[in-house]
Design a protein that fits this description.
By secondary structure, the chain is an alpha+beta fold. It has one domain. It is built from four helices and 13 strands. The longest helix has 14 residues. Strand 7 and strand 8 form a beta hairpin. The strands form three sheets. The chain has a five-stranded antiparallel sheet with strand order 2-13-12-9-10. The two termini are 27 Å apart.
Length: 240
């Protein structure tokens, strides 16, 4: 495994993990087909070897229930992926694995199969990322490798888990658990002619009200849409 993580501070400290795959689920609280995919993402999020991200879209809000986590930017990201992957259209539940392949999010074997297929190959997470928590400072370093050059490092802020009682729409009367809910995303920088290094104060990050953050290192297509994800890391317990 090329992605290296280290913890040098005594507890309490941020919890760092090294995923071997990134699974992005595009879902909606107003989609009756989505709960099985939401359960699968919840299961994947509970483990340490997969970075599972829940992107709640807003284009089903007209069905009678406005997704409490939905954002237009999430729908835009999904449409951009459709362009990148030649999907033709967007749908829910849709899973994107490592920015390279899309499958129906409720098809458990297809999702797990793609994770296994990509792990340890050129389609996996091949770029070393070092994340170190030292005296309340989160230090991040992305190695300068051929695979990393031209890739952008993104910080994705998450709510770890919430249960939502849905009162209207296709899922009316259901209480559904959602995991690793994406609330914000920020560009950190691009790997160019040297390693990318940066640092953040964990206390400052925690005060923003998020539970965790993910780091994804992603290429961009020639059309400017999201491309392959080549590196990732997850930082839990921002409030520690």
């Amino acid at each position: 495994m090329l992605l290296a993580l280290a913890v040098t501070t005594p507890a309490p400290a941020a919890e760092l993990s090294q995923p071997r795959a990134v699974v992005e689920l595009f879902t909606s609280q107003g989609c009756s087909s989505c709960p099985p995919a939401d359960r699968l993402l919840d299961e994947l999020a509970a483990g340490a070897d997969t970075l599972a991200l829940g992107w709640h879209v807003d284009y089903w809000d007209y069905l009678g229930w406005k997704d409490t986590f939905g954002q237009p930017g999430h729908s835009e990201r999904q449409r951009a992926y459709a362009h990148s992957l030649g999907a033709g259209q967007v749908y829910t539940p849709q899973v994107i694995i490592n920015g390279r392949q899309h499958v129906v999010g409720s098809r458990r074997e297809a999702v797990l199969g793609a994770i296994e297929e990509f792990a340890g190959t050129a389609n996996g997470l091949t770029v070393p990322i070092e994340v170190t928590s030292v005296d309340g400072t989160l230090k991040i370093r992305v190695a300068h490798t051929p695979e990393a050059i031209g890739a952008t490092l993104w910080m994705v802020y998450l709510i770890d888990r919430r249960e939502i009682e849905i009162k209207h729409g296709e899922n009316a009367g259901r209480r559904i658990a959602y995991a690793n809910i994406v609330r914000n995303i920020e560009m950190i920088g691009m790997v160019k002619d040297q390693a990318l290094q940066t640092e953040f104060q964990l206390a400052d990050m925690g005060r923003r009200g998020y539970d965790s953050c993910a780091l994804i290192l992603q290429k961009t297509t020639k059309d400017g849409t999201p491309g392959p994800i080549v590196g990732a890391a997850l930082v839990r317990d921002l409030g520690s």
